[in-house]
Amino acid sequence: MLLDILMNVFRPAMLLSILGGVAMGISIGAMPGLTSTMGVALLMPMTFAMDPDVGMMVLIGLFCGAIYGGSITAILINTPGTPSAAATVLDGYKFTMRGEAGRALGISTVSSFGGGIISGIFLIFIAPILAEIALKFSAPETFALAFFGISIIASISGNSLIKGLMSGTLGLILALIGMDNITGYSRFTFGSTFLMAGLSFIPVLVGLFAMSQCFLSIEEIYERRVMDNTTKRSIPTLQDLKTIFPTILRAGITGTFIGAIPGAGGDISAFVSYDMEKRVSKHPEKFGTGIPEGIAAPEASNNGTTGGALIPLLTLGIPGDANTAVMLGALMVHNLTPGPQLFVDQAETVYTLFAGFMLANVFMLILGLSGLRAFVKIVSIPRQVLVPVIMVLCTVGSYAINNNFNDVIVMLIAGVIGYFLTKGGFPLSPIVLALILGPMAEGNFRRSLVMSNGSYAIFLERPIALAFIVIAVISLFLPIIKKGIKVQKESKASA
Amino acid sequence: MRKISIITSGIFIAISVFIILMARTFPEGSNGVVGPGFFPIILACIVILLSCIQIYNSTVRPSQEERENKVNLLSNQSIRVWISMGITVAYFVLMYLVGFMISTPIFLFVALLYFKVKSWPVRILVPILTTAAVYVIFTVLLYVQLPAGELF
C-alpha cells in the first residue's frame, strides 16, 4: 500500500496541484483582507471536476500556504495578512525596521515548515488511532460529540461568549431549513422547492467568508500598501536555526493540539505559543524587540494548527476550524464522508492526503525561500482592482455548485448578513460550524431516543457520551463562572 | 458597536418568535420521540434568552470593545459599502436577464470606475481578462454552464 500511495502522490498532476495550491495560498495569505478561509472557499468550486484526492490536495496546499503567507505582510508592512499572523507582527516588523526583513522572512519560513511537519507527524500517527475508537460510536456518542463541538466553538471564538453563542444558535437554526431527515416534514421552506434540500452549505460559506470580507475591504479600499521589494537573502543562518529549533518544537506541538480543538485556530495558538516562549525564555524582556524566537513561536504554532485541525475533520467528521469546515464541504461533494468509516472504506485516499500534506509543507519551504520577490509583487495589487474581481469569483463559485441562480442570491444575503454581524462583533465561524454540526446533533439525538424508546437516560448511561456532554456543559459555563469570580474579586478590592 | 449589537439582538428575537409560531404548527412526535418542531422551539428560546442578555449587557454594562469601537453606518466608508451592495444587486439582476458573459465585464467596469481606478488600460483589460479567464476555467475546463440569461 505504501508504494501505491507514493506512486499516487508523485504523479505529475498531483505534484502540480499541490504546488499550485501552496503558491496560491501564500499569495492569498499575504494579502491583508484575504484570509485562508476565503481562499479555500473560493477555490473549492474549481476542484470539483478534479479527482477527489487531487482536488483535496489543492485545498490542503492552499490552507498551509495561506497560514504561512500571512507572515510576509506581518513582517514587511506591520499588517498581518491573515488573523493567525497577528502575533508575528510583534517581533517580525522590528526586523524590517532594522533592515533585516530577509532574515525575518527566512526564520518565519523555516518555522512554518517545522510547525507544519510536526503537526503532519501527529496527524499521521494519531488520526488512525482516533478513527478506530470513533468507529465504535453510535447515535448517542455522535450526538454528544456534535454537542461538544458546538459548545466549545461558541465559547472560544470571538471576544464575547454571548455573541459567540448567538452566532452558533443562528447557525443551528439555519441548519433546520429543509426536509426533516427523520419524519420527512418540510421545515421553514415557505413552499419553495429550492429550500427543500436545505440551504446549500457552500454559497452560505462563500457569502459569509468571502463576500462579507469584500464589503469590509471596501471600507478601506483606498489604503495603499507600499512594500520594500529589495529583500535579498532569506535563507536563515546556522546560528538562527540553532536558536529557533527548540522553539519550533514546542510551538509546533502546542499548535497541533490547539488546532485539534474544534473552534480554536491559528490566531489563538500563535498568541498562546508566543506567550509560552516568553515564559520559558531566559531573556523574556527581549520579546517584542525583534528576536528570532518571537517570529518562530507564532509561525511554527499557526502552521502546527493545520495538521491538528485535519485530525478531528478526518476522524470524527468535525471540522477543527472554519478552513476545515470548508474542506468538509469539499469532501462531501466528492462523496467522501469524513469520519471513522473513511479510514476503512477509503484508506488509500486518506493516506494519500497525509503524504500530500507533508509534501505541501516541503513546497511551502522551497517557495518561501526562493520565490519571495514574486509574492511581494502579487501583494502589491491594489484593492480597488482585487475586490471586484473577487466578488465575481464569489458569484461564479456559488453558482457552479448546483448550476442554480438561487444559490447566488443565498450567497449575497449571507455576505450582507456576515458584514453586519462582523460590524456588531459577532464571530462568523460558529455559524458555519453549527450549520454542519446541527443536523448531526439533531439527527443523532432523535435517533438515540428511537433506540431507547424515548428514554433520555441513554445519554447518561453511556460513558463516552456522558463525558462529552459534561465537558460541553463545563466549557459553556466556565467563562461565566470565571467572570463572576473576577467581578467578585474586583468588588472586594474596591471595598 | 453598542447600537448595532442591540439592533441585531432585536432582529434575532423577532426571528425567534416567528420560528416558535411556525414550529407550533409542525406535527407532534410519537412514541416519546420528539417531533420536527422540538429543536426549532428550543433553539428559538435559547436565542431569545441570549439576545435579552446581550441587550442588557450592551445597554447597562457594555464591554470595553463595544465602547471603544464606534460603528457609524452612515459614514463615508459605510455609504461606499451600501452603494457597492447596490451595484452587486444590479449586477445579479443584469446577470439574470442577459447572462454572465455580458453582465460581468459591465459590473467590473462600473466597479473599477466607482473605486476610482485611474488607468484606462486597467479599466478595460481587467473586465475582459477576468471574464475570459472565468469562462476558460469554468466552461471550457470544468464544464460548468455559466448563467446564460432569461432574455436569450
Summary tags:
heterodimer; A: 495 residues; mainly alpha; B: 152 residues; 72% helix
Largest protein interface, residues of each chain: A-B, 62 and 71 residues
- What's the helix-strand series of chain B? HHHHHH
The residue ranges of chain B in which pLDDT falls below 50 over 5 or more consecutive positions are none
Helix content of chain B: over 70%
The run of helices and strands of chain A is: HHHHHHHHEEHHHHHHHHHHHHHH
Identify the strand order in the major beta sheet of chain A: 1-2
The 3D shape of chain B can be described as flat
Main sheet of chain B, how many strands, which sense, barrel?
none
User: Structurally, how many domains make up the residues of chain A?
Assistant: 1
The percent of residues in helical segments of chain A reads over 70%
Q: β content of chain A, as a range?
A: under 5%
Q: Tally the beta strands of chain A.
A: 2
How big is the Rg of chain B?
A: 24 Å
The low-confidence runs of chain A, each spanning 5 or more residues with pLDDT under 50, are none
Number of domains of chain B: 2
Structural class of chain A: mainly alpha
Tell me the quaternary state: heterodimer
**Which structural category fits the helices and strands of chain B?**
mainly alpha
Main beta sheet strand tally, sense and closure of chain A: 2 strands, antiparallel
Total number of helical segments of chain A?
22
End-to-end CA span of chain B:
46 Å
